[in-house]
Design goal:
Layout (H helix, E strand, L loop, with lengths): L1 E2 L2 H13 L9 E2 L5 H14 L5 E4 L4 E2 L11 H16 L1 H5 L5 E5 L22 H23 L5 E6 L9 E2 L2 H13 L3 H4 L1 H8 L6 E5 L2 E2 L10 H12 L8 H6 L3
Parallel strand pairs: 1-2, 3-5, 4-7, 5-6, 6-8
Antiparallel strand pairs: 8-9
Helix pairs in contact: 3-5, 5-9
């Protein structure tokens, strides 16, 4: 488990211990908006784990005010999109070593690409927290589409999942207006123990197809996804990462265009 919230770690440890699995859980304190922190986590995983059966991406955090990370990226772009791009490609060989590997990307598939600000991915000129999240979801759609196009032949399955509104804590730094909105959302949000069931099903029995998209329990028609922008986003992303700690990493050199 990668994350920064030690309270959640402690709760998960307690739950795992109650099932007799406490010794199997490892927590790596990681700021998933930080390139250096992600890099350190990847090094630890690669040192300790020869094979990965499933990667599950869930991290997101709402910010009413725009924040730029020390790496120079808008926070939501770094946390919600870049971290998932990096971890999926950096650990591809560990996934490919498993018999039925799967990446589960919990975002919001099927909303198109109209929220992507191609000339301003960091939203420096037009920031709103909801805009950042909407863009992040659409970037993750393209991430899944392009990953499957490039590496579907490795046997790694990519599943985009939107479980609906979940009362997972709804992590964020909210202004008063959004605080009221979140309080209203919690009234109808489903509990985590229900929302995770389809994700657990995917992990237990990955689909045969290289890419699958599921929204609120329903499989989406992939012909509705416009993957034409996938290569464009991939190239933009690798170019951005070329100015980070990952520039000299083997995985980056393998996937980065010459």
């Amino acid at each position: 488990m990668l994350g920064r919230d030690r309270r959640k770690r402690d709760k998960l440890m307690q739950a795992a211990s109650a099932l007799g699995a406490g010794g199997r859980l490892r927590f790596i304190a990681t700021d998933l908006s930080s390139m250096t922190s992600i890099s350190s986590a990847i090094d630890r995983i690669r040192d300790d784990v020869p094979r990965i059966d499933a990667l599950v991406f869930c991290a997101r955090h709402y910010r009413s005010e725009r924040l730029v990370t020390p790496d120079g990226f808008e926070y939501t772009f770094a946390l919600f999109y870049l971290s998932r791009f990096i971890l999926g490609y950096a650990l591809l060989d560990r996934l490919a070593a498993a018999s039925r590997p799967v990446i589960v990307n919990v975002a919001g598939p099927g909303t198109g690409t109209g929220q992507i600000h191609w000339d301003d991915l960091g939203l420096a000129n037009d920031y709103h927290g909801l805009t950042a999240l909407s863009q992040g979801g659409q970037l993750n759609d393209l991430l899944g589409l392009e990953f499957a196009r490039r590496f579907g032949g490795t046997g790694v399955r990519y599943v985009l999942v939107h479980p609906g509104i979940v009362d997972s804590g709804l992590s964020g730094d909210y202004d008063p207006q959004m605080t009221a909105h979140i309080a209203a959302m919690r009234i109808t949000a489903q509990p985590v123990e229900h929302a995770v069931l389809p994700i657990l099903d995917v992990i237990a029995s990955p689909p045969d197809e290289p890419l699958t998209a599921i929204a609120r329990g329903r499989r989406l028609d992939l012909t509705e996804f416009n993957g034409i922008h996938g290569p464009r986003l991939f190239n933009m992303t690798t170019k951005l990462l070329g100015h980070t700690v990952f520039a000299d990493r083997d995985w980056y050199r393998r996937v980065s265009p010459a």
